[in-house]
Amino acid sequence: MDLFIHQVIAGFATGGIYACMALAVVMIYQAIHHLNFAQGEMAMFSTYLGWQLLAWGAPYWAVFPLVMAISFAGGLAIERIVVRPIENAPVLSHVVIFIALFAIFNSAAGFIWGFTIKPVPSPFGEGALYPGAPIGKHQAGMLVVTMIVLSLLWAFFRFTRVGLSMRAASVNPESARLVGVRVSLMNGLGWGMASAIGALAGLLIAPVVFLEPNMMLSILLYGFAGAVLGGLSSPLGAVLGGFIVGIVENLAGTYIPVIGGELKLSIALFLIVAVLLVKPAGLLGRRTVQRV
After folding, report:
1. Domain range for residue 171?
2. CATH at 37
3. Count of alpha carbons within 13 Å of 132, Cβ hemisphere only?
4. Considering the chain, what is the average pLDDT of its residues?
């Protein structure tokens, strides 16, 4: 029973990172109705920026907001410079652009910082939270920071005028324009916030998986799984899906000997396929009905 509780708590902590990535995926999907395959590489590049600032002697808790601010500006710039000109282009054009962004960020990180694995210190300390605790200090810190950020985002989208405008622009852009919402600006803000959330996920997970140009590939896949499970039309569903994926992944890796630690990534793929077959809209997603 102790092992089960330990794995659930650890999965919940890791699921917070997946929830952040899933939320970033959904925010961009709601803005442009396409999946951003470069989301993980953008987060990875932001993590390298954070590592470089730490190497130069900057304090971690000053690096954290600074990197998120830089990532926000970078995401907004990508939306304005790269995505906006092709907003009416065919789907394949968007796919090619996102694959190109994936390759650019991955190669640029390797070119600037090299492809060797770099350890990243944890700001929360090492070891167990307390003697005999089922969760480590870094896992507890990840969970607390993630829950604070997700709570702030919920309040932002629920109670602020800009947040409500972003929700309106994603649900019904035509009606939003009629009431004076600048949909293009809201889409840009969505890209910026998604990039900042991705940077948050990268900075928190880097001490666990170590820093290298491909570090976010599996994290993005888990984020995709969480987004599909919760529903690509529901930010709340994406967060819920991310936590579920984290818990299921940990329990499956522990109690199913065939999976172990090597095949845990297959859990994400299985969840994506299963949800698309059984409930394509996801747990909290909206079904789209079109009149033909």
Report:
1. 2-278
2. 1.10.3470
3. 1
4. 87
pLDDT of residue 287: 64
The helix-helix angle for 137-159 and 235-255 (nearest 10°) equals 160
pTM above 0.85, yes or no: yes
Using CA atoms, how far residue 209 sits from 22, 51, 119, 192, 280, in Å, is 18, 14, 9, 25, 31
136 - beta bridge partners? 128
**Would 269 be classed as within a structural domain?**
yes
Q: Judge whether 289 lies within some domain.
A: no
Long-range contacts formed by 286-291: CB under 8 A, 24+ apart: 286/231, 286/233, 286/234, 288/233
Number of domains in the chain: 1
Phi-psi region of 256 (alpha: psi -120 to 50; beta: other; left: phi over 0): beta
pLDDT at site 114: 93
Name the stretches of the chain with pLDDT < 70.
Answer: 1, 258, 260-262, 286-292
HSE (side-chain half, CA atoms, 13 Å) at 60: 10
| Domain presence at residue 199 | yes
| Residue 287 counted as domain residue | no
Q: How far apart are CA 104 and CA 149, in angstroms?
A: 29
